[in-house]
Structure formats: C-alpha cells, structure tokens
Specification:
about 30% helix; three-stranded mixed sheet; 2 helices; alpha/beta; two-stranded antiparallel sheet; Trypsin Inhibitor V, Chain A
Length: about 200
C-alpha cells in the first residue's frame, strides 16, 4: 500500500515539473513572438526618421564663372575695323592719337592689351592711332637777293657791277630808272646833289 502511494506521489511530482517546464517554454515562445512583431515597428520608425536628417543638411550652390574673351590682334587695321572687331567680342575701344609719318593715317599702331590675353567682357582696350604730321613749308627756290640798303625803293644788288641812272652818261653795266630814294653812303653815286633823291633826270 505504501509503495503504491509513493508511486502516485512521485508521478504527481513529475507531472507538476513537466507542467512548469511547458509553461516556461510557452512563455519563452510568446516573448520571442512579441520581440519579432515589435522589431519591424522599430525599423519603420528608423526608416521614417532618416529622411528628416537628410533634409536638414544645407545645400551648396556651385560658384558662377564668367567666360573670358581673348584680345584680338588689331595692329595694322584701320580704326573702324578695330572698333568693330572689339564690339563683336563684347569689348570697348578707347582711341588715342600719335603723330607719325611711318604709318598710314588712321591705322592702329599699337594696343594696350597683348593679343591673346584673356579679359572679362566689357574690358576697355586702348588703341593708338597714327596721325599725319603737319605739312612742312618747302624751301624757297627763288635766288637770294643781296639788295643794297642805301636804295630802299629798288633792289640794287651788290657784287654785280656798277649802277648808273638810265638816260645818263654813265656806262653801267647796270642802269636805274629814277627818281629813287637814296640814303648815305650812296655807294653807286646816284644822288649827285645830295638831296636824298637819285636819278632825278630820268
């Protein structure tokens, strides 16, 4: 009788232990399922909050660069053509003049910027333009006249021989029509009476 009773006691203890193990196992499975179902919610939260950090980052604008223009070679051109070429490239021409006989009038002698240099649109290029020199007075082709100052009314040249009054008794070789004003010292003796008038008889 005692053995049978002890058997049932032992069997009851074993059954109680199996029940506890089963409950514990079920509790672990329930916790695992709860963790599995809650994990996507966390990842979804992370996924939805990620874009907010990207939108908060500032955006940078790339710097704007202005294209430059190459300066053309203008020396030797006419002023009008040089200005037209500069205008076509968005550049401005400023003109100064230089007097020279080496280049044709109105031709570009030089420019302020070296050809091929890169400049920004609207830059000013100074052009030096050739200007004709003033005309020179040609030398006189008339022979020099060596007139004696003693006879202001006429030109009696020294060094070509004696002068006599025309119609008189003198033998020249040069003759003067009078009357003429005579100033001292009267080198040709045309004022015989010394009254300041020569060749009165003429």
């Amino acid at each position: 009788m005692w053995r049978r009773k002890g058997f049932w006691i032992a069997a009851g203890s074993i059954a109680a232990m199996l029940l506890i193990i089963a409950l514990a196992s079920r509790s672990d499975q329930t916790g695992s399922k709860a963790a599995a179902t809650s994990a996507p919610v966390q990842s979804t939260a992370l996924a939805t909050t990620a874009p907010s950090s990207s939108t908060a980052s500032p955006t940078t604008t790339p710097p704007t660069t202005i294209p430059k223009v190459a300066v053309p070679r203008l020396a030797g051109m006419t002023m009008a053509n040089a200005k037209r070429i500069l205008s076509d490239r968005g550049l401005h021409g400023r003109v100064t003049y230089k007097t020279t006989a080496r280049y044709a009038t109105g031709t570009v002698i030089s420019q302020s910027r070296t050809p091929g240099t890169s400049v920004t649109p609207g830059a000013v290029i100074t052009l030096v333009i050739a200007k004709a020199p003033p005309p020179t007075t040609p030398p006189s082709t008339a022979p020099a006249r060596n007139c004696d100052p003693a006879y202001p009314d006429v030109c009696l040249q020294d060094g070509i021989g004696d002068y006599d009054c025309a119609g008189g008794t003198g033998n020249g070789p040069n003759y003067v029509d009078g009357p003429i004003t005579v100033l001292p010292p009267d080198p040709f003796d045309l004022d015989g009476n010394g009254d300041g008038v020569g060749c009165e008889q003429g």
